Amino acid sequence: MPTTQAIPRTAPTKQGAFWTAKQRDGHSIHEVSYRACYKPQLPAYFIERYAKPGQLIYDPFMGRGTTLIEAKLLGHNVIGNDVNPLSTILTAPRLCEQSFEKILHRIEQISLPTTEIEDEELLVFFEARTLRELYGWRSYFKARHSAGTFDEIDAWLQMVACNRLTGHSKGFFSVYTLPPIKPPHSMHSVRLTPSAIRSQRIATPRN
């Protein structure tokens, strides 16, 4: 019987610190609430070493957009997709430079429709006034989509609203991500105001 012999092969290897060192020094535009995400230093390590200047960067599982946004900050063109539609909502607006003055002006123009609470079980997570306003924002975005007037400013506001939807620290619309110990009437209210969107810094390419 003929026998085969494995041919030893060697591959070039590289070593370097690409994640743990200064992993919180990334651009604030990356700070979006999303499960199972990685730090921007990881894709930056590979992009800076293996991509040519201005080269197209593709991420087939873009999640919250960490790779695409880091590549954009490094001066690359980007394209990505994900089965989760939330990925597009969270990523696309942060790939374009925004005007805080225009966003502020839009917020001042918006008059949210009066809405009723459709699912009272959500009061476990949200204060009643906050929940009504969230329903109002949902109605506003749906109306803009239906009228064909949904623009990049609306996309930014929608991104901020989704980003701050649930969490247990200061600045989130909900009080807890899990059912709270305190009763609903003890919860505080958080509104989508200019101060709520100011923390989402504008992305500008690095030199």
UniProtKB/TrEMBL annotation:
InterPro entries: DNA_methylase_N4/N6, SAM-dependent_MTases_sf. It comes from the Bacteria. Keywords: Methyltransferase, Transferase. One of its GO terms (biological process) is methylation. Residues 16-84 form the DNA methylase N-4/N-6 domain. GO terms for molecular function: methyltransferase activity. This is DNA methyltransferase.
